[in-house]
Structure formats: structure tokens, C-alpha cells
Design brief:
single chain, alpha/beta, Rossmann fold, 12 strands, globular
Length: 377
């Protein structure tokens, strides 16, 4: 009999008591791992889209379109890695629920994988999570458990795991360690493979927003491991503490409220956020994120979530600096999930009014940049 304590970034999880020599359990585990790996094997890579920029700039802007995953977001990669991590550690067990603290997209993807291997799933989420994300979680067989204060998600998820004998999968602790950052078709390796035949195959910058921090950590570590000169920038939305924690070297930084940009920004410095691996951060107003995501729709006819807008705003600011300095090269950012999940938020003028957000000056700044090459914000 194997008994071990599983640690968590939020709280201690339930004691695991499994007979690993039990043939029935080993057969279930092998089949569960096979099903999760098969999902990756039959999934094509995601596209690298070009954002139109004036030819004379000598700069190319790409968006890695993670919305084409089976569950429609960047978090599909993370959920797959977390499930394999939990299965191979003996933490995810037959008949026991997986519980997650999430603002939505990770939970959608985890509900998909839980259903794939035939176990229950519970998502602990802020009550403000978009209705479409909640619908998708339930569509994949998951259950939504709401909290009024997003800062209490972690404790509530750990409590549910302890009470049900389930596993708190804890993306905020395990995202950076569950993913193989050295390669194995992670998002960083995929970006470089897809740029191989472009005129600037090694990007000057990769811009990645942070929710858990796992994606920026994976990309940054891969860049260092492969000895590329690419720099990594992490734009941070309002009501998030990541920028302040990074700028001040303060691992205890916190915020009093949750982010309006779903999927990114956190009220605490998450264990999976690795400040030392990245080169630059910038603070992005929420109105700028919305303006950028609407500009993306106008430019390439694709709606995306607010986190994509945060990253795009950061990428455009970097491009403006390159233009001003006469530098050429490529910049890559992420299209994290589809905008159809947020029609009642980032594409709703009434929601903007309710939130007191005026996107007009930010939209004008983007228009001026694309027309003149000058960044006036």
C-alpha cells in the first residue's frame, strides 16, 4: 500500500491511499494515459496568423492561434499536461473527482479531459465568469461551483478535494512543472518550427500574458535552453499583482480584487509565475486590451478574448519602439481563445459603460500607429 501526502500551493490535499500493484488500477491508469496522449496525437498544430503591418517597416507580427484546440483555447495544452502529471504521479484516481480553481478556460479544457477518462470534474470559479464558459464546462460534463471573491478560489478548491477524496489539480502551482519546457512539441517549439521559413525565423520578441504564468515560463525556458536571442515580454492587466511583484522583486505582492480580463492577471504571485525567466513586463489598462482585441477583429476578421488584446497591445507597443529605432524583425504573441465566449463583455458597449471603460483613446492610438508608425500613448 502506498500512502503519501500531496502538497499544494494553496493548501494540503487529501491523503492518497492506492495499491499501485492492483491490476485493475494499473489497467485503468494505462488506459487513461493512453487516451490523453491520443488526444495530442490526433490534434494538428495550431496556426500562426499574420497581422498586417506596413511593408516598409520590415517588421512581421504573428499571432499563435490557440483557439483552434479541441476545447478552444491555449489552456488545452496546459490541461493535457496537468492530467498527465496528475495521472503519472498517482494523484488522479478512478471514480474520484478532479477539482480546479479557474476563471474558466482551464476548467473547460480540464472538464474535457476528465470526461475523456471517465471521472467527475468540479470547477471553482468567480461568479463573474462568462456564461459561455460555464455552459462549455457543463457541456463537457463538469460542474460549476461559484465563489463571490476570486481570492478564495484556492481554499475552496482544496476544501472540496479534501471533502470528496478527490484531487485539487492546482494549475497555479503545477503549470510550470507539468509542461516539458525543453521541447516535446510544446508551444515554444511549435512557434519556432512554424517560423522556420519566414524572413525573420528567430523572433525579436515573444509576448505572452500570464494567468498561471506557466506559458511564459515554458517559452522563456525554451528560449534560454535553445540559446536564442529572443526576448520575452509579459503584459499584465489592471487588478493584477504580477507586474508589481516582478518590478519590486516582491514574491508577496497582492491585489485587492480580481482581473476583468478573464484568464490572466492574479491577486497573488502564483507559484508557476517565474519572474526571473522573463525579460520585460508592462502594465496594460483594461480599456487598451479591449481596444486591441477589437482592432484585431477589424484587421483579420477574428474575434478573440480580452487576454489576446492585452498581449496584442504589448506587442504593438514593442513594434512601435522597433520602428522608432529603425530595427527590423518579427514579434509573436498569442490568440488565446475565441471572442465568441465574451460577446456579452469585451464586445458589448453596455458592459464597457457598466465597467466605466472608455476604449476610444486606445483605439485611436492603435489606428495612428498603423497609419504613421508613431506610438502616441
Amino acid at each position: 500500500m502506498n500512502t503519501a501526502e500531496q502538497g499544494s500551493g494553496a493548501a494540503a490535499a487529501a491523503t492518497i491511499d492506492i495499491d499501485h500493484s492492483d491490476p485493475e488500477y494499473r489497467a485503468w491508469l494505462k488506459e487513461a494515459v493512453r487516451k490523453v496522449q491520443a488526444d495530442a496525437n490526433r490534434s494538428a498544430d495550431t496556426h500562426l496568423l499574420r497581422f498586417p503591418l506596413p511593408e516598409g517597416w520590415g517588421i512581421d507580427l504573428y499571432l499563435k492561434d490557440e483557439s483552434t484546440h479541441p476545447t478552444g483555447s491555449l489552456k488545452h495544452r496546459l490541461a493535457r499536461s496537468l492530467f498527465l502529471h496528475g495521472l503519472c504521479n498517482g494523484w488522479i484516481r478512478p471514480g474520484k473527482p478532479v477539482i480546479e480553481a479557474s476563471s474558466g478556460s482551464t476548467a473547460v479544457s480540464e472538464a474535457y479531459f476528465a470526461k475523456l477518462i471517465g471521472i467527475p470534474f468540479i470547477a471553482v470559479m468567480p461568479r463573474t465568469t462568462s456564461a459561455e464558459k460555464c455552459r462549455l464546462i457543463e457541456f463537457h460534463g463538469g460542474r460549476c461551483h461559484f465563489v463571490d471573491d476570486s481570492r478564495k478560489m484556492y481554499q475552496e478548491a482544496a476544501s472540496l478535494a479534501a471533502g470528496t477524496g478527490g484531487h485539487y489539480i492546482d494549475q497555479f502551482t503545477y503549470a510550470e512543472r507539468a509542461t516539458d519546457w525543453r521541447g516535446n512539441n510544446n508551444i515554444a517549439e511549435s512557434i519556432y518550427q512554424q517560423l522556420r521559413l519566414e524572413r525573420y525565423p528567430e523572433p525579436a520578441w515573444i509576448v505572452a500574458t500570464a494567468g498561471t504564468g506557466g506559458t511564459s515560463a515554458t517559452i522563456a525556458r525554451y528560449v534560454h535552453y535553445m540559446q536564442y536571442d529572443t526576448r520575452i515580454c509579459v503584459p499584465d492587466p489592471e487588478n493584477s499583482c504580477f507586474f508589481e511583484g516582478w518590478a519590486n522583486g516582491d514574491s508577496s505582492a497582492s491585489s485587492d480584487c480580481g482581473s476583468r480580463i478573464e484568464g490572466i492577471g492574479r491577486p497573488r504571485m502564483e507559484p508557476s509565475f517565474v519572474p526571473g525567466a522573463i525579460d520585460r513586463m508592462m502594465k496594460v489598462p483594461d480599456a487598451a486590451s479591449v481596444a486591441a482585441v477589437r482592432a484585431l477583429d477589424s484587421a483579420i476578421g477574428r474575434k478573440a478574448g480580452g487576454s489576446t488584446g492585452t498581449g496584442l497591445w504589448g506587442a504593438l507597443k514593442i513594434i512601435a519602439e522597433m520602428v522608432a529605432e529603425g530595427r527590423t524583425g518579427s514579434v509573436v504573441t498569442l490568440l488565446c481563445d475565441p471572442g465568441e465566449r465574451y460577446l456579452d463583455k469585451y464586445y458589448s458597449d453596455s458592459w464597457l459603460e457598466e465597467q466605466g471603460l472608455d476604449i476610444t483613446p486606445y483605439a485611436a492610438a492603435i489606428e495612428r500607429l498603423l497609419a504613421t508608425g508613431r506610438w502616441t500613448w
